[in-house]
Specification:
Length: 500
């Protein structure tokens, strides 16, 4: 039986209150001065570096351009061009601290990961903007530092899912330092020289930012080499020919090579098995969606469940508890996404995940580090799995199956790589949920609104020779889960290899 989804009314009230604060912040500056940096650092963190910079620049430049022209002295030669250039420069300077934070923070441990943005913002406020006359007022910069530090600490606590064991020490340090700094600002003698204090603080920030940059460069957080994972590498096969693969290192870069010369590159620890035909049809269409939303996919899940008053752990356990997973098992999730389901498996299992989206896998790697977990990840097509027959004790897919280009072939591949006797699961949304939700959201409606056929529960695609075939309707009929067991003994004449 599936786990019952529990409600959490206190979390729902808090979620609506916080959401209201962010909405009010768009219209009321005293609140927006605090919520704005939180949204900014969150948004940049959910995007690829270049895309995040461009979007943040547009969001900063266009409103400033429209609202600031009346206060700009339109005198001298080419006043409009001068106004345009200075407004653009001010926007670039405002966005650069966020980009610096995006580049550095993920490589820093604990509370140190919260410091790049406030350091860069303080340097910008004290040293750069005043010298370029872009509108920053002189001052110590301490207020700017703590506003932006507050933003990154809030996001750090959010990313660590409010786990007391992970954030208590860091949050305590932040509170103590903030109290001391506030006291300094409130009780600083009137005879103190503000610009001298600002200069000392600014250059202290420069030194700290340089030290963190050096740390990040020396600790790039590289993934474990595949040459050190012989057991996982031994399971790999070419998705097109089924040939065994071996790890080859050339010029410091690893690849997987077959005996016939097929080569599959490994980038950032993730083997790439995608071929030219894997991103066509529905696979290509929906992969574009997940390449766009991959960075904030997890956060939308968390916010949506909180606003609806649902207890998040029970929401995932509702279908994950249908699996038969024991410590020591090898588990494969096809279309693993950001790895959210891995949190709800027993510790001590060997995790593997495959997905069509590089962006989702990159965020899965970040999650694995945050949660102290390890998983072998693969960029590939669930309809042509790059694994040997009977490789995994548990195989499942959750949340993406409906829109595979060839669902029947994906099921056959899941069966092929599962060991005899394994329980398999396919979980996804029903047609009712797709129509009531995805077709009504402005962005996703462009992907789901012109579908050629309705979503159906794929029980008819499961080969009839499978055992214990069962359909479970979940979450008030909005989701389904199909479970079945691979035969413990092969049946004569049955081929379960890909393409059969």
């Amino acid at each position: 039986m599936p786990t019952e989804i529990r409600s959490n009314r206190s979390a729902q009230i808090i979620a609506w209150f916080v959401t209201s604060l962010f909405i009010v912040g768009f219209f009321f500056n005293p609140i927006g001065n605090w919520t704005g940096p939180i949204l900014g650092v969150w948004f940049v963190g959910t995007q690829k570096i270049r895309r995040g910079f461009v979007w943040m620049l547009a969001l900063a430049f266009i409103p400033a351009l429209l609202m600031g022209w009346r206060s700009f002295p339109l005198t001298g030669p080419a006043p409009a061009l001068k106004y345009l250039v200075w407004t653009l420069l001010a926007a670039v300077l405002g966005v650069l601290p966020y980009t610096f934070h995006r580049l550095i923070s993920l490589r820093l441990p604990g509370l140190l990961s919260t410091l790049p943005l406030p350091l860069a913002a303080a340097i910008n406020h004290i040293l750069i903007q005043p010298s370029l006359h872009t509108g920053a007022a002189p001052g110590t910069g301490i207020h700017t530092f703590f506003v932006f530090w507050f933003a990154t600490v809030v996001l750090w606590i959010w990313n660590n899912e409010f786990e007391r064991s992970k954030v208590a020490f860091g949050a305590g340090i932040f509170a103590i330092i903030s109290a001391v700094a506030l006291g300094f600002e409130l009780f600083r003698p009137s005879t103190a020289v503000p610009m001298l204090t600002a200069s000392v603080f600014a250059w202290t920030c420069v030194a700290a930012a340089a030290a963190l940059t050096v740390w990040a460069v020396l600790h790039p957080g590289k993934q474990r080499p595949w040459a050190e994972k012989p057991e996982a590498a031994a399971l790999l096969r070419s998705p097109s020919t089924g040939s065994p693969l071996r790890v080859v290192t050339e010029h410091g870069r690893e690849s997987l090579v077959s005996g016939s010369g097929e080569r599959f590159p490994i980038r950032n620890g993730i083997p790439n098995f995608l071929g030219p035909d894997d991103l066509t049809g529905d696979n290509g269409k929906y992969n574009h969606l997940y390449e766009t939303i991959g960075g904030f996919y997890d956060d939308t899940q968390r916010v949506a469940t909180a606003l609806r008053g649902l207890e998040r752990d029970s929401y995932f356990a509702n279908y994950m508890d249908l699996l038969d997973v024991k410590p020591g098992d090898s588990v494969l999730e096809t279309s693993v996404g950001t790895g959210l389901n891995f949190k709800y498996l027993p510790r001590g299992v060997k995790l593997s995940g495959l997905d069509l989206s590089a962006e989702m896998l990159a965020n899965c790697q970040v999650n694995m580090r945050r949660w102290g977990m390890d998983a072998d990840l693969y960029l590939g097509n669930a309809e042509c799995l790059p694994f040997a027959d009977s490789s995994f004790d548990v195989v499942f897919t959750a949340g993406a199956f409906n829109f595979f280009s060839d669902r029947a072939k994906a099921i056959r591949e899941m069966i092929r790589v599962a060991k005899p006797g394994s329980l398999l699961m396919i979980e996804d949304e029903t047609e009712e949920y797709v129509k009531s939700t995805y077709e009504k959201i402005p962005y996703t409606s462009s992907f789901y609104g012109d579908r050629k056929q309705a979503v159906t529960v794929p029980v008819d695609l499961v080969p009839p020779e499978m055992e214990d075939i069962h359909v479970e309707m979940l979450k008030e009929g909005k989701f389904y889960a199909v479970t079945f067991r691979k035969l413990a003994v092969a049946v004569a004449g049955v081929r379960l290899r890909m393409g059969a």
